[in-house]
């Protein structure tokens, strides 16, 4: 317990780092997921921008990357992270790698949520002369907003998980904190403190996500 | 020049998988819809009627043929050019297809946004439209708070927002109960009468055709097998499929099974008389029977009215001496068509 009290400043720094990593990866990964997900949805057979080769490539890419365990992906994508961020380790490399992995995970969720929009509503928009860009912003995204918010809430939890794993390759945050001061120093109380903070964080975000989704669905 | 004119239009879907046959949804259809018509297209599911109507606003593209809308062949237009054409063609749907994330008023405003109308103009037009469909008090409601009939009225208001000259109704009443169906059909009739909007109605219900259409085309397996003024098709259907549709709302000549039932109760002679418009005077026909002293009972049939013109078939069981009956039937044959059923 005393050890934990001594470590409090490090714990707050770690919490801040986790929030920082998760916020940025949620932004970049979320955006990437939205783009790839929209790409999958729009190019599939029968959709408004049907494009079989492009759909095939996107689909293959998502299926290829998604099943890779994150810790392996972290190592495998390191050269790419180094090329993009200038370093293979540290927070920037971590943020890049997590955002990349999250993009592909989120793409599938976005695609599935968009598929819940009744095709008839898109017909109705087309029948009054709406083009694809307008349909995306005035029909697809607003109509699927509730499920999309829940999808992003879901991915938030996955991001917290990934950011913790990233402690292994020099990323900061609560995962790193738990490993460094708890696990390696045989101090379970320190580990539990980190776990507790993660649980609180996840609960809070899940609650907030549910609230927003309920508002979007007006239920 | 017809407002909508289809010339040898076909729509062929490529095979679903390798080796499977391609599917011909529309098989060289030619059709003319004049301005001001309420043109009904009837057929069973899979007859191609929905595909046909979706070709008119190019939601689907034809494989061959010309589709001339307001003097312009839309089959050769690009997607961008088609968007302008679609502003002049409203469409309503079986499942209403309202935007669930928008209020009633914002649903009706949607086509105006697409057309680029300024905001103040949109509000005035939306109020006017909601008033026309009788939903002024629902402007702030969301679609999931409305009944089916109300949703379709919002659909109609939305379809009319940009003042189109053509309205496509794709099974617009098929998800509604009979009473609501008639409310919506009455509204469509007003749209036609008050705004002069030409309406193309797709349906599998002959009742819908009977209630509002002026002309009808019967579709079967991608082809138009019969067409004409509604009265003509109803009173004298030529194709077997048309006769089946007509028989769903009009009791005509009894079928073999129905005749067997009639035979059990009536041992005398049974005849079916056709009454078509005012050309046949019922009083004269029944007067002949009365004068000859032939007693009769109406055992089957009915008289319908299409666009104010009565028509129908009545099947009578006659009782009397054979020679007397022969004589009176000969007289009646000069007045109308008599079919003796045995």
From TrEMBL, chain A:
Entries under CDD domains matching the protein: TM_PBP2
InterPro entries: AA_ABC_Transporter_Permease (IPR051322), MetI-like (IPR000515), MetI-like_sf (IPR035906)
Keyword Transmembrane set for record: yes
Name the record gives this protein: ABC transporter permease subunit
A GO cellular component annotation in the UniProt record: plasma membrane
UniProt similarity note: Belongs to the binding-protein-dependent transport system permease family.
Matching SUPFAM superfamilies: MetI-like
Membrane-protein topology: Multi-pass membrane protein
Keyword Transmembrane: yes
Subcellular location(s) per record: Cell membrane
Segments crossing the lipid bilayer: 20-42, 54-77, 89-110, 144-169, 189-213
Species this protein is from: Cryobacterium gelidum
Automatic annotation (TrEMBL), chain B:
Region forming the signal peptide: none
A GO MF label: ATP binding
Any one GO biological process: amino acid transport
Coiled coil (residue ranges): none
Keyword Membrane carried by entry: yes
UniProt keyword list: Amino-acid transport, ATP-binding, Cell membrane, Membrane, Nucleotide-binding, Translocase, Transport
Domain of life: Bacteria
KW Cytoplasm (keyword) present: no
Domain ABC transporter: 4-246
A GO CC term attached to the entry: plasma membrane
Quaternary context: Homodimer. Forms a membrane-associated complex with FtsX.
Family to which the UniProt record says this protein belongs: Belongs to the ABC transporter superfamily.
Entries under PANTHER family matching the protein: AMINO ACID IMPORT ATP-BINDING PROTEIN, METHIONINE IMPORT ATP-BINDING PROTEIN METN
Free-text function comment from the UniProt entry: Part of the ABC transporter FtsEX involved in cellular division. Has ATPase activity.
UniProt name for this protein: Methionine ABC transporter ATP-binding protein
Organism expressing this protein natively: Cryobacterium gelidum
């Amino acid at each position: 317990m005393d050890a934990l009290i001594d470590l409090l400043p490090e714990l707050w720094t770690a919490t801040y780092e986790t929030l920082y990593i998760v916020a940025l990866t949620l932004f970049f990964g979320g955006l990437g997921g939205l783009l790839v997900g929209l790409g999958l949805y729009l190019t599939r057979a029968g959709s408004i921008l049907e494009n079989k080769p492009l759909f095939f490539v996107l689909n293959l890419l998502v299926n290829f990357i998604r099943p890779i365990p994150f810790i392996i992906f972290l190592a495998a994508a390191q050269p790419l992270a180094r090329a993009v961020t200038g370093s293979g380790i540290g927070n920037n490399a971590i943020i890049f790698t997590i955002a990349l992995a999250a993009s592909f995970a989120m793409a599938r969720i976005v695609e599935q949520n968009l598929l819940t929009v009744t095709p008839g509503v898109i017909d109705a928009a087309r029948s009054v002369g709406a083009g694809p860009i307008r349909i995306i912003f005035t029909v697809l995204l607003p109509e699927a907003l509730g499920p999309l918010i829940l999808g992003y809430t879901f991915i938030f939890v996955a991001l917290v998980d990934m950011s913790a794993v990233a402690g292994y390759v020099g990323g900061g945050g609560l995962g790193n904190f738990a490993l460094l001061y708890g696990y390696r120093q045989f101090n379970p109380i320190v580990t539990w403190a980190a776990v507790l903070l993660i649980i609180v964080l996840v609960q809070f975000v899940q609650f907030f996500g549910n609230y927003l989704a309920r508002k979007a669905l007006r239920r | 020049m017809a407002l909508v004119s289809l010339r040898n239009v076909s729509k062929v879907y490529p095979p679903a998988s390798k080796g499977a046959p391609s599917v011909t949804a529309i098989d060289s259809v030619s059709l003319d819809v004049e301005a001001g018509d309420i043109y009904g297209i009837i057929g069973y599911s899979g007859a191609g009627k929905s595909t046909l109507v979706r070709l008119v606003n190019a939601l689907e593209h034809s494989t061959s043929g010309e589709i001339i809308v307001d003097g312009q062949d839309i089959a050769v237009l690009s997607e961008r050019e088609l968007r302008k054409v679609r502003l002049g063609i409203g469409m309503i749907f079986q499942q209403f297809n309202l935007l669930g994330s928008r209020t009633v008023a914002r649903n009706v405003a949607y086509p105006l946004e697409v057309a680029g109308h300024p905001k103040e103009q949109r509000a005035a037009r939306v109020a006017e439209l909601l008033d026309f469909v009788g939903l002024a008090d629902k402007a702030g409601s969301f679609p999931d708070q409305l009944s089916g009939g109300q949703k379709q009225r919002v659909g109609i208001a939305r379809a009319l927002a940009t003042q189109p000259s053509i309205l496509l109704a794709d099974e617009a009443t098929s998800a509604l109960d009979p009473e609501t169906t008639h409310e919506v059909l009455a509204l469509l009739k007003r749209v036609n009468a008050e705004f002069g909007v030409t309406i193309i109605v797709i349906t599998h219900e002959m009742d819908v055709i009977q209630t509002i259409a002026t002309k009808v085309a019967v579709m079967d397996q991608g082809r138009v097998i019969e067409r004409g003024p509604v009265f003509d098709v109803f009173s004298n259907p030529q194709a077997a499929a048309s006769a089946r549709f007509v028989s769903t709302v009009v009791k005509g000549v009894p079928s073999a099974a129905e005749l067997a039932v009639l035979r059990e109760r009536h041992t005398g002679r049974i005849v079916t008389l056709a009454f078509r418009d005012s050309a046949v005077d019922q009083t004269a026909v029944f007067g002949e029977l009365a004068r000859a002293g032939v007693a009769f009972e109406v055992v089957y049939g009915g008289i319908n009215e299409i666009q104010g013109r009565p028509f129908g078939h009545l099947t009578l069981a006659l009782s009397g001496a054979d020679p007397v009956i022969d004589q009176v039937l000969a007289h009646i044959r000069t007045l109308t068509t008599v079919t003796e059923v045995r």
